[in-house]
Amino acid sequence: MLRLARLGFGDSERAAALLAGGALAELADDSAVVAALGGAADPDLALRTLADLAAAQTEPAALVDALRTDPALRTRLLAVLGTTAALGETLVRHPPLWRELAGAAPLRLPDLRATMLAAVDAAPAPVDALRREYRRLLLLVTARDLTGEDDLAATAASLADLAGAALDAALAVARAAEPDGGAGVRLAVIGMGKCGGRELNYVSDVDVVYVVEPAEGTDESEALRVGTRLAQGLMRACTAPSPEGALWEVDAALRPEGKQGPLVRTLASHAAYYERWAKGWEFQALLKARPVAGDLELGARYVQTVSPLVWRAAAREGFVADVQAMRRRVEQLVPKTEQARQLKLGRGGLRDVEFAVQLLQLVHGRADETLRSGTTLAALAALGHGGYIGREDAAAFDEAYRFLRTLEHRIQLFRLRRTHLVPEREEDLRRIGRSLGMSGDPAAALVDRWRRYALEVRRIHEKLFYRPLLDAVARLSAGEARLTPEAARARLEALGYADPAGALRHLEALTSGLSRRATIQRTLLPVMLGWFAEAAEPDAGLLAFRRVSDALGETHWYLRDLRDEGLTAERMARVLASSRFAADLLLRAPEAVAILGDDAELQPRTRAALVDEVRAAVGRHDDPTAAAAGARAVRRRELFRTAASDVLGLLDRRGVGAALTDVAVATLRGALDASVRFVEGERRGPLPVRFAVVGMGRLGGGEMGYGSDADVLFVHDALPGADERDATDAAYAVANELRRILALPAPDPPLLVDADLRPEGRQGPLVRSLSSYAAYYRRWAVVWERQALLRARPVAGDVELGREFLELVEPLRHPASGITDADVREVRRIKARVEAERLPRGVDRSRHLKLGPGGIADVEWVVQLLQLRHAGRVPGLRTASTRDALAAAVEGGLLAADDAAALGAAWEFAVTVRDAAVLVRGKAGSELPKDLRELRAVAQLALGRDSTAGDLLEEHRRTARRARAVFDRVFFV
């Protein structure tokens, strides 16, 4: 008994008793047979059933002898007896049946259709004969399955073929009941669902649709009546009570109008229904339609008739959403008590795989006939091969589906009952686990593997089934989805591409060939063409997409992300077709495509994080030129992040200004680190000076635009005991090196360091000591220099020195008693001079966003004059932010709310439009574009995707006029 327990018998005492007496006594000492029994999925079940089988034999010795001498029989028979109690009972009920498994030769399946028809032909009880023959053949299929001779796909196909053969035999039984054998009726049985897809379970409803045609000389109405009787007779032959038990339910509910519709229809009636009334789910069901019995020629005509309708179904309005909703409804219908054990309908179940595969087939199969398979595994392989599913996802789906279907088979085999629930009893789980080759604790191992596969299936299902690209592809016509040259040219012209011939060349370059890359591009581009066309520059967007695709080459994640994360593809198309600035950045940092699919990734990074990354990049290089390149690489990526967020409407103007300022500050700090390290290397020692960079203008105000320079002041202070001249020389060396490395030629938008706001302007020293600044400002500071200091903010270098500088200039920029009337007049004089002299030659003043009437300068000069006059007594005005200063002026009673609103609206509009113009044109400038196409592109970015060039010009005139009126009234008061 101990030996039996070690072999896996649960009731070793009973097992010993069965082997000790009766017909099996001779097997007790046969180690090969006993070991084979112990290796069965359920050794106790195998032994008990074997004992019953031996007892049922007229010559049990023949069975015993065969077990001992025929290893193939032993393996097959015990595999069956240890896995399926139902087929064990069949063997006991029909004692000679075990001989079907004997012999060393491979177990072959006969011609199933011919064998089944022969079994019922002239049999006195044809229904019983049908079912006995079905069970005999099912035994052969099961033995091949359990011994590994057939894999899951072959087993499921054999079960479907066996079901088709049984339907044919059942139809023969039904015809035999008709007076003339129903000779006037042609009847085709169309397999649907798993039967049609040749992937049937051991026990499953066999879904069918009946097609009837009258034979020559027969009235159609009579053919329908006889056809109905034949279909009903077929169903009774499969399901009516019998000593041999029923086969399975024959379900015709997938017919037109479902259970409310007529059981049989003519081919023309079917066609009329599907053309006019069928719903989307009915076409999904027809995907697996296949003639399985009866008149196969008529069945082939049926499939030929409905197939074009199937592959047009995805173009129906809301088709994808309807399929997705149906999957959710199916999931919700699972009773709560079954949800945790549901293998078929629940989360991570078989339906997750099947619905995802079928939806992808229906959407992409219109253009790709290789996807038109009714078999899930074959369709999945085609989707993976064609690039519609990633290789890893396709392989994981395939592996999980095979396991789940095999588990379903093992569950159903035990009692040959239709069920999709994973059992709860330990002994059932153990038997199934052992049948799948699991050792140790088979029950626990089985549950663990099932749970892991369910999680993986759900993950992939949600990625594929709810892929945004699907709905967009489904909305294309079949011709558009195929992207043939003719369809592509017509689509390009219809979408408004300026150069359809050039665009077609790009398409051909992207999609030609048989590579996986070209295959995926053929799926993406029909949809992306429409997305490009929704922006102002579709031709430029397509060209940029081609260049980015060429740059990334075979990078494994690039096309996968575009295909699987449809939001990434749509956003990429919109950004590339809207902004030359962003497109150029992406071409130089193509890996940044990865951030487009995630809103969180598109949010600007904090200044601290940027500074740390830039300093780390700079710190890896001793050469300052290489260090600057490292800083520029980070800046390039962050400029793209900001530009993309801006184009996509994920950042407001304050957010854009702050993000661009933070990038500039991080770049300056990294470049300063490299410059200091270089100068220290040249001098062979630490610097004898503290050094700080003070941001001015938009940099200091945190309101930088895409085309803004970095306005700065350089401040230094000699360390205690250091020589002043030596300290000044070191500071000059650092400042010059900083400006040099940031001015090096590069394809990126430059960050020009402009120190023209320093004392005495361009004529003054580039670098001054803190004491020199103090002496100069105390004696010589003029009002424009005090005005410039309103935005002074330390941005890099020695923090304490920066703070000391601010303390030094605070009385100058925010004087307690304001400025004198003479200073006010000087500010007004300088503003008038700027208007007269600073405008570029040949520029229409009314179109200049900065210096034109009601432009950026008008608003900022009003704000800055208020700050100079009143910041000493209104603390809120002590800010570098134009917006905040306007709000403080209203709160302090210095500006009417309506006037502040007009100024703020004009400033916000002008800043937005100027940034939009840089995004569109890829270069800095403050004039409204003269090119109408560019002007429309700017309007779409600044005002909204449906805006026109006229809308932009009208809004500019309106806001500028109101702001100028306020400026004229307030600035000169």
Summary, kept brief:
By secondary structure, the chain is mainly alpha-helical. The termini are far apart.
Features:
mainly alpha, multifunctional enzyme, elongated, EC 2.7.7.42, 10 strands, Beta Polymerase, domain 2, 5% strand, transferase, 973 residues, [glutamine synthetase]-adenylyl-L-tyrosine phosphorylase activity, 5-stranded mixed beta sheet, ligase, Four Helix Bundle (Hemerythrin (Met), subunit A)
CATH class of the domain at 148-310: Alpha Beta
Helix content: 55-70%
Radius of gyration: 41 Å
Question: What characteristic shape results from the CA principal axes?
Answer: elongated
Secondary structure tally, helices: 45
Average predicted confidence as pLDDT:
91
Biggest pleated-sheet summary = 5 strands, mixed
Question: How would you classify the helix and strand content by structural class?
Answer: mainly alpha
CATH architecture of the domain at 148-310: 2-Layer Sandwich
CATH superfamily of the domain at 148-310: Beta Polymerase, domain 2
For the secondary structure, the number of strands is 10
Briefly note the CATH topology name of the domain at 148-310.
Beta Polymerase, domain 2
Q: Strand portion, in percent?
A: 5-15%
